[in-house]
Amino acid sequence: MINIITIIITVLFAPLAGAVITGVDRRITARFQSRIGPPVLQPIYDVLKLLGKERVAVNAMQIIYVIGSLVFAILSLLLFVLRSDYLILVFVLAFSTVSLIVGATSVRSPYSKIGAQREIIQILAYEPVIILMVVGMYLVTGSFNIGSIAEHEGCLFAQLPLVFVAFCYVLTIKLRKSPFDYSTSHHGHQELIKGLTTEFSGLQLALIEITHWYEAVLFIGMLSLFFAHPLWLGILIALGVYFCEIILDNVCARTTWQWMLRFTVVLGFSLAMTNIIWLYLKY
Amino acid sequence: MKLIQKAAGKSPWIIHYDCNSCNGCDIEILASLTPIYDAERFGVVNVGNPKHADILIVSGSVNYRSRRVLENIWREMPGPKVVIAVGACACTGGIFSDCYNIIGGVDKVLPVDIYVPGCAPKPEAILDAVVRATEKLVHKREELAARQAEHVAKLRAKDPKGGRNAEKQ
């Protein structure tokens, strides 16, 4: 019964929280550029407007992939909230992205296809680091279960500082923030028009936007897991990390995917691996 | 439903097409998006993708080459959509109106909703046009909703049993 209530609260309120996070993000970005910026609820206005647009689809299958992406994102957040298996969560989250990629490649637009290919390269870069993070947590707590990880005595960050840094770095790629916003960008013009989302419009784009809201909440949760005692401190630190991502978004120019892949393998992968080897030797 | 109606005017995403302009108007359009004027406080985003856009801002007079592109962009935009003609050339053809290759203003090709005269118009005037366009967007959204409801009702009348199918068509 408690589980059902948790599910309902998560499904209803997580996107609202995600929308506010995104709205504050846009507001802070505006302030960095010495502008006033849009209202905090602007992302909600955007989605409502998109829902009211004329329905235009390039092909009949497009919407199914978009819904798939949304459903898998909700499912991964539910797995997190219901304290299920962390590895399963990582795989379900990957499904969500893959679904969007398949949707983007189902059309004939070259912009959409190149965006999708870049997204695949992004997955290639960040997925090993996320899995290494889960492995690191297993080495410390002896369990893949999120409940056991959250209830673990002592601060996970003390045992996994390098993994935390690597995860923060990888989060920039996952959130598609500058310097890694080349598959699709939050901002207007770029070399691929809108990359991955070029051929999605109206309802489809609204669903993609809602997917991003769920993901934002999930990432805040994943970050706060490093500082689970007390939880409010973890959430506060996670929001601080998100703020740093916004700063990074504003001060960086876009890089190439070759640079990203090289840098992630060298920095992200080796940071996480060093931490895990250290843990392995310690225990 | 009412929220969707209201939100139609709250996030005008614009696409800008330079038909045949001398770049004077284009510079002013981009100036209205800079931090000084901050168009984003009205929810304006310069998307550069017709499939995401609500407002088409056109500068320059239309000629026989740019006509095809202009029409194509307009067709790719999902409704409700608004066209703004910025500058004397886009409004009437301007100084080029008698040239052999010029068709005329944008209204010779597309249904223009808002004209911004001037050579070149001030960024304030362009921003004002965008804000006016948001009112038009709300109005057009109401029309679209009414048209869709009418269409569904017509299909229902034709085939009373196929309720779910009627909505799909």
Describe this structure in words.
The complex is a heterodimer of chains A (283) and B (169). The N and C termini of chain A lie far apart (40 Å). Chain A is an all-alpha fold and 283 residues long. The model of chain A has no long low-confidence stretch (mean pLDDT 90). Chain A has helices at residues 2-32, 42-51, 62-81, 86-105, 110-141, 146-150, 156-159, 161-174, 203-224, 231-251, 257-282. In chain A, helix 1 crosses helix 9 (203-224). Chain A has eleven helices and no strands. Chain B is an alpha/beta fold and 169 residues long. Chain B has a single domain, classed as Rossmann fold (3-Layer(aba) Sandwich). A five-stranded parallel sheet of chain B has the order 2-1-3-5-7, sandwiched between helices. A two-stranded antiparallel sheet of chain B has the order 4-6. The longest helix of chain B has 36 residues, at 123-158. Chain B starts with a helix and ends with a helix. Chains A and B meet through helix 2 of A and helix 1, strand 2 and helix 5 of B.
